[in-house]
Amino acid sequence: MAAAIADEQRVVYNFIGKSGLRVSNICLGTLTFGSEGTTSRPGQNTEEYAHKVLNRFVEWGGNFIDTANVYATGKSEEIVGSWLQAKNERDRYVVATKVRFNMDPSNANQIGLGRRHITQAIEDSLRRLHTDYVDIYQMHCWDHGVPVEETLRTMHDLIRCGKVRYTGSSNVTGWQMQKLVAVADKLDIPPVATLQQQYNLLCRDGEMEAFQVCKIEGIGVLPWSPLKGGLLTGKFTRDATPTDGRIGWVAQNESRGSHSHPAWSKVKEDEKVWNVIDTCKRIGDAHGKSVAQVALRWLLQRDVVPSVIIGARTLEQLDQNMGAANGWAMTAQEMTELDEVSAPTLTHPHDLINKVNVARYNPWMPEYRVGNK
């Protein structure tokens, strides 16, 4: 039997930007639920075990669940849906899903952010999720093939007919994020409430532009891959090629490397990776916390982040990650140390802008600073 969770360790609830919606500061991502369509990846959960993970997440106080229609080609949504149906407490949970990627390669219109695909995809997602609405419907990635006006009008129509409560974005650049804001304003419709983006101590590119837009406009950032695909768990050393989990899966065949799971040959030669891990370990030792908990806590203390999306292959992994949610915090000095050791390399014009504005800090304009206060 899993250990009881003390009240002071349970999640806290934050508003997602200006939406008025409150969610647990840890969100359970369900990419690992179901094996259909992803049978070549390790660590996929059966429906029975996924339900155990969801139940344990709720014991921690979690109320925020993230999925996507493309995860396991719909099976992830089905598993979440069967759990919601069994719980029969839909109002207690905030469910987010996504639309954009190809659900049927044989059908030229089963992809993208056009009106036809979105309106079909939401019906399919609602059926799989056993619900009549989703709380946050997210554009899974930018679509160069469709005018953004068409996408946002369609999303707003789904809000007006009650099938969607809020809309969100994911995997966009700074100019694309600003375009979403500007077009929504032009159309006089509600702006997107969230940006789901890869964000961790080894991937801070979003801070350059996209998160600045979120800061100014009151849009909540939801980091995915907060542990860089498992690299920031502290389990790995540069001298031993991994064999476990998805890091090991990529290490055994580097052609599988991606933006979230970099090739091991590059990782082991990257001094920054190991300096970040060493700093996390030192800070973690001072608090009695793991490397993973420090990496998650760093995100939770960022001022644009209302909730961090975690994945869990096992109940033990879930409990370990949830240990970052509450009951402790890193000091300002420790946050600064992590900021400095993980600082991204600035390219032009970001390097110039930062350099010439060092003496121009204006405390009345905090929206231009994405930090940890």
Overview of this structure, please?
Pfam families: Aldo_ket_red. Residues 26-342 form the NADP-dependent oxidoreductase domain. Keywords: Oxidoreductase. One of its GO terms (molecular function) is oxidoreductase activity. This is NADP-dependent oxidoreductase domain-containing protein. By secondary structure, the protein is α/β, with parallel strands linked by helices. The protein has a single domain (11-235, 264-357), classed as TIM Barrel. The protein is built from 13 helices and ten strands. The chain has helices spanning 47-59, 75-87, 115-129, 148-160, 174-187, 210-217, 245-251, 264-267, 271-287, 291-300, 315-322, 332-341, 350-356; strands spanning 13-15, 22-24, 26-29, 64-66, 94-99, 134-139, 164-170, 194-198, 220-224, 308-310. The strands form two sheets. An eight-stranded parallel sheet has the order 9-8-7-6-5-4-3-10. The protein has a two-stranded antiparallel sheet with strand order 1-2. The protein is globular, with a radius of gyration of 20 Å. It starts with 12 loop residues before the first strand and ends in a 17-residue tail after the last helix.
